[in-house]
Amino acid sequence: MNINFPTSFAIGISVAFVAAAALLPAQAHADESGTFTGASDHVTTGGVSIVKTPAGGTLLVLDADFSLDGAPDPRVILGRDGAPVDAADLGALTNLNGLQAYVVPATLDLSTLDEVYIWCEEFSVPLGFADLN
């Protein structure tokens, strides 16, 4: 299994947490999940899940079927009420396709965030979004 982590993931994350994330499919369960819909004339498809790892952390996981047709400076941002929340920016999208995981900081209150955006920073538009259930 290959999980692509953003550069910021490696900073300050313990080896135990990384090892737990590698075991994700077998030992973690999705708390919430959704399916992407494209936006702003972009094609964004695939699933997304919020999962708790065995080590107690939280990850946002773009499923193996995730795909974005391309755009400048795409980012992964949690949101609510039809808009991304700046404080919930999880970082740059690491790949246009496939399985990837992003650390959700413990300081974020996930009970107030129910959407995931793939966001174009350069043009300030959504490239895709998913409602979390």
From TrEMBL:
Keywords: Signal. InterPro entries: DM13_domain. The keyword Transferase does not apply. It comes from the Bacteria. Residues 1-30 form the signal peptide. Residues 34-133 form the DM13 domain. This is Electron transfer DM13. It comes from Jannaschia pohangensis.
